[in-house]
Amino acid sequence: MSEHPSGAFARALVAALVERGVEDYVLSPGSRSGPLAHALAEAGAENPPLGAPRVDLHVRIDERSAAFLALGIARGRAAAGDPRPVAIVTTSGTAVGNLLPAVMEAHHSGVPLLLLTADRPAELRGVGANQTTDQVGIFGGFVRWEADVPATDLGARPDRVTALAERAVRAALGDRAREDMAAAPGPVHLDVGFREPLGADGGVWHDPPRLPTPTGGIPVVADRGEPAPLPPVARGVVIAGDGAGDVARQVAEAHGWPLLAEPTSLARSGSHCIPDYVRLLESQQGADLAARVHQVVVIGRPTLTRPVQALIARAPALIVARFGARWREAPPHAQRVGRDVPASWLWSVAQDDADPAWLAEWRSAGARVHTPEGWGPRVAAVAFAQSLGPDVWGVVGSSGPVRALDRFMPAASAGAAPVLLANRGLAGIDGTVSTAAGVAFGSGRAVHALMGDVTFLHEAGGMLIGPRERRPRLRIVVVNDGGGTIFSGLEHSAAPAENLERVFTTPHGADLASLCAGYRVPHRAVRSAGDLTEALAEPLTTLEVVEAVV
Ligand SMILES: Cc1ncc(C[n+]2csc(CCOP(=O)(O)OP(=O)(O)O)c2C)c(N)n1
Ligand SMILES: [Mg+2]
């Protein structure tokens, strides 16, 4: 074996990325990406060779699952207070196309990913070479930055490889000084052209060269400006959407306003939280209260219910913050759109500006709504919510489960809302199994994931984890109601029953127990709230499925 330029490039890139905090790599097999695969196999080994950096390597056969796993790891890391880009390595051709769903979600929800896709070198593109297509630009507007990288030529230029890594990591983490989408974290694509030879070359690892302006680790970006405090109106309301954070609770409490917090807001806690807000807003009494609201403050990105969208649409005064990567898509009638919540919003307002009766009205109206009884998706959702805590984080799929939580998840004590994450960027039902696995890896926590049967089956392949790979500490609760039942609650339900069922509900008849057995994943079925609660209380060491048959 003798060192070759493609191998040298791969080692230089991995070393420079690790130095910038990129420690997690998800790889799918292929030949063209061989140089990166060999480098990562070394760096991800139990005993890496002398001089090699240490990486956390996960290998998945299916690139679509690999990309969602990376997305989940990045989400888990960010939620644990340590945001870093997560890298995905694929070979050329359709492998690259399989990354698109996770890339779209990451773009919309502001999750940093590094897509390292192998390609033919320039001289082999457009001349009919096998497994070669137009990969440069394939992700269009869904990436913050992309580069066509002549890897083999750069093998002898570690300074340029380091500069490339620096730029890629900075772009993925977002540049808050920018006014456009580039301000938010998101995916970055390096299409890497490798010339043969591609095999293991046994080359040595070097420390990456210093750049002229050393940054050292994750670049820190300064926040801008300090917007004014919130107008201290008496009849305000805080809506906490996805990713709002506990700060939304603090803003509501500082102003004496009710807090309407979605389950993935991380703000569903405290005495100002109205956990029954969805059903309240659907009632006449709720509509009357909503009509008297003077000012709506939206923190995070709410996506779950029409009454909340209506409240925002009708707001006489609207202020928006932390709308996420899509902050430019905040409702156009907002008077103020801030990327973050300024400290001044937490200043307590003077007593004469607050109206204690306003909050009390919301609270007493909300308290009249009752928790579900009997056995079904709602009861399963409540049992799931109650199983979460500091040591068990949650992931929730789209469709019925997240809406059941929105309606029935109780409010935690102040500041103690469970960490509950979801792919709300585009609310897809795809990739949910792998996202949940990634959250477990990225956060270092045990994870309970709640999802519908169709959502689970959409990516059952996420359970495909080879014997050499680590398994996540993940318990998937599948609410099996025999199809996508959300549609029977929508306008489509007026269609003839057999049509509704065939083209919307899509009953599948799949045997989840056998499916899990095929993947060698422990499975158990539960048919009551007591059995589910019991299953959720058991110690969690590996990947397992609890099928809630409803
Ligand atoms: C990738 C993708 N395809 C299609 C949809 C549309 N969709 C939304 S919910 C749903 C059905 C989900 O069924 P299930 O997971 O069983 O949950 P349930 O509706 O039964 O609560 C579908 C197909 C989507 N959100 N994402
Ligand atoms: Mg279902």
Describe this protein's structure.
- There is one protein chain.
- By secondary structure, the protein is of the alpha/beta class.
- Helices cover 33% and strands 15% of the residues.
- The chain contains 19 helices and 17 strands.
- The protein has helices spanning 5-19, 34-43, 63-79, 94-97, 100-109, 151-154, 158-173, 247-255, 277-282, 284-291, 306-314, 356-367, 377-386, 400-408, 432-443, 453-458, 497-505, 512-518, 529-537, and strands at 24-27, 56-59, 86-90, 113-119, 145-150, 187-193, 236-240, 259-261, 295-299, 318-321, 336-338, 392-396, 420-421, 446-452, 474-480, 523-526, 543-549.
- A 6-stranded parallel sheet has the order 2-1-3-4-6-5, with helices on both faces. A 6-stranded parallel sheet has the order 13-12-14-15-17-16, sandwiched between helices.
- β7, α8 (247-255) and β8 (259-261) form a beta-alpha-beta unit.
- α3 (63-79) packs across α15 (432-443) and α13 packs across α14.
- The chain is globular.
- The model is unreliable at 214-224 (pLDDT under 50).
- Magnesium ion is lined by residues 452-454, 481, 483-485.
